[in-house]
Amino acid sequence: MNVNQKDNQRILPVLPLRGLTAFPEMLIHFDVGRAMSVKALEIAMKEGQCIFLTAQKDLQTDTPEPEELYAVGTICLVRQILRLPGDNIRVLVQGGQRACARSYEKGEKGSLKAVVEIL
Asked: Within 10 A of 103 (CB to CB), how many other CB atoms are there?
């Protein structure tokens, strides 16, 4: 997990989760369909397969803003991506370290990147 690493901080793509939480050492799979989440996965695959997973506060929001996300989440390693019919993607990730998002920046297609600090 060496994406833009500086001390115990790194810049990672953010994938907001709805009604789901990832913990360290946990293998979890879920389906992704939102454009911002698909873009975050694409970025993660190009930059070392690490992604920051955090829960969103309101499950009904389709494109959450940074203030609508919990600060604490988990840095995960993307283990497998399976494309499903209808533009959905099934993802298998392995939880790594707990981290806290210190700041966010918007990317293309509404995707988010965060400066995360390992807890």
From this structure: 10
